[in-house]
Amino acid sequence: MKAGQLNRRVTLQQQVETRDSYGGVQTGWADAGSYWARVRDLSAGEKVAGGQEVAWRTREFVLRNGVAVDERMRILYDGDAYDIRSVFRHPDRTVVQAVSGVTDGR
After folding, report:
1. Which residues make Cβ contacts (< 8 Å) with residue 50, sequence separation at least 6?
2. How many distinct structural domains can be found in the chain?
3. Which of 25, 56, 88, 101 has the smallest count of CB within 10 Å of its CB?
4. How many CA atoms within 13 Å lie on the side-chain side of 92?
């Protein structure tokens, strides 16, 4: 993978649990790291959720090999959060497919 192809900055986030002042558990997101990536649009569309039309977009993010990433994480890119759907590891790169505008409760 040529370094010049990795020309977009993305942030990986992982879920974290914290205790609130009442002893309850709160789930949120914490940054796991920022990386250079190649970003490619795969598909986009709209769907109805909760009575409202919601736009979604699927993108492919290519990262250097060795980046710790899995399907429980999400990617922040260009102001949107992308739920990771799949991770493919190759000898020289890691390819992540992720979708925005759709949430599965993670």
Report:
1. none
2. 1
3. 25
4. 5
Q: Is the CB of residue 100 less than 8 Å from the CB of residue 76?
A: no
pLDDT digits (tens, 9 = 90+) for 51-68: 878 888 999 999 998 899
Domain-located, residue 106: no
Q: How far apart are CA 89 and CA 28, in angstroms?
A: 27
Evaluate whether residue 105 is within a structural domain. no
Domain extent for 33: 3-100
Q: What is the model's pTM?
A: 0.83
CATH code at position 62: 2.40.10.270
Q: Identity (one letter) of the amino acid at 51?
A: G
- Whether 59 and 38 have beta carbons less than 8 Å apart is answered as no
